[in-house]
């Protein structure tokens, strides 16, 4: 099917949009660390049930040690180190600046895939990526100009967001090498297993288990964590890996980044936010860039 990877990437962007909204609400109630850990557990269980239906095993036992190694490394780098620094950058400098810095992830991923995987991008793809990323950065800056908050830890937040972007990019490279022709759900579950181990150690060091217990007992927060987990660690991560099987990593990551644009109508409907004409224009330009990658 033509442009299958690009279409799956659009689905990934929609998944990330629902995930961001759900986790933003839950994070305000119970904290980002609790949300991070619980989402992984729910994602692991959902993937296990899916694999049981597909392959008859809860955990992917038919994957060789080479794939397990690369996917575990990917999970530790992308889902633990990358996400920990990214979530802290949200606290230090806010979501908008963090997402602006995270916008370097697609071109960085494309560069790494060129160096290590010999993937190349055509002129049309490069133009489409440039237009899309420029529009996303424009929308983030326009939105940021409305906020008059001075962030105390701005330097630390910027550095942490950069580490988050690098973690995401390097994690995806290891994912593609490890996944090969294996099932995307199986590959995602292995990444999540590594992430659960990483967060278990981190939470134990921080003595954060009482906070996890409080979060589990918060019914409203758990509803949103569950919703975000289904569209995040389960469908979102899996669809992102699947997209990389059918198109270049740079294209897949660029298209999936338009969740910054897709979140606008949700903000209007759910949070009654006012959206400026500049944001609408930026959104249209972003979709033109994505359309170029389909032509």
Question: What's the gist of this structure?
Answer:
The model has no long low-confidence stretch (mean pLDDT 85). By secondary structure, the protein is mainly α.
Structure description:
This protein has about 300 residues and is mainly alpha-helical. The chain has one domain (about 15-120, about 150-250). It contains 13 helices and no strands. The protein has helices at about 5-30, 30-55, 65-95, 95-100, 105-115, 125-145, 155-180, 185-205, 210-215, 220-245, 250-255, 260-270, 275-290. Helix 1 crosses helix 12. The longest helix has 29 residues, at about 65-95.
Features of this protein?
295 residues; mainly alpha; 83% helix; 0% strand
Distance between the termini: 14 Å
Please tell me the overall pLDDT.
Answer: 85
* 3D shape: globular
N-to-C series of helices and strands: HHHHHHHHHHHHH
**What is the β-strand count?**
0
Counted by DSSP, the helix tally is 13
Q: Over all CA atoms, what is the radius of gyration?
A: 18 Å
Task: Tell me the domain tally.
Answer: 1
Low-confidence stretches: none
Beta-strand portion reads under 5%
Structural class: mainly alpha
Helical content stands at: over 70%
Main sheet specs: none
Q: What is the secondary structure topology, with strand pairs?
A:
Elements: H1 4-30, H2 32-55, H3 65-93, H4 95-102, H5 105-117, H6 123-144, H7 154-179, H8 184-206, H9 209-217, H10 219-246, H11 249-256, H12 259-271, H13 277-292
């Amino acid at each position: 099917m033509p442009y299958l990877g690009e279409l799956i990437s659009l689905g990934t962007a929609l998944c990330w949009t629902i995930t961001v909204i759900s986790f933003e609400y839950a994070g305000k109630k119970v904290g980002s660390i609790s949300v991070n850990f619980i989402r992984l557990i729910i994602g692991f269980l959902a993937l296990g049930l899916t694999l049981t239906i597909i392959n008859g095993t809860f955990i992917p036992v038919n994957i060789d040690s080479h794939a397990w190694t690369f996917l575990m490394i990917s999970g530790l780098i992308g889902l633990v180190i990358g996400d920990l620094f990214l979530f802290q950058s949200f606290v230090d400098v806010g979501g908008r600046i963090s997402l602006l810095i995270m916008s370097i992830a697609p071109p960085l991923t494309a560069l790494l895939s060129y160096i290590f995987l010999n993937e190349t991008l055509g002129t049309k793809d490069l133009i489409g990526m440039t237009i899309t990323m420029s529009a996303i950065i424009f929308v983030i800056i326009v939105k940021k100009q409305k906020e008059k908050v001075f962030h105390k830890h701005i330097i630390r937040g910027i550095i942490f967001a950069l580490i988050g972007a690098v973690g995401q990019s390097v994690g995806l490279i290891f994912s593609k090498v490890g996944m090969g022709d294996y099932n995307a759900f199986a590959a995602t579950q292995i990444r999540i297993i590594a992430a659960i181990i990483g967060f278990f150690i981190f939470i134990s060091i921080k003595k954060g288990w009482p906070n996890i217990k409080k979060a589990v007992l918060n019914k409203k927060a758990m509803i949103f964590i569950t919703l975000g987990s289904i569209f995040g660690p389960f469908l979102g991560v899996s669809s992102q890996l699947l997209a990389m099987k059918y198109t270049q990593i740079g294209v897949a990551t660029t298209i999936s980044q338009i969740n910054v644009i897709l979140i606008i109508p949700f903000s209007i409907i759910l949070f009654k936010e006012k959206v400026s004409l500049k944001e609408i224009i930026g959104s249209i330009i972003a979709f033109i860039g994505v359309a170029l990658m389909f032509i």
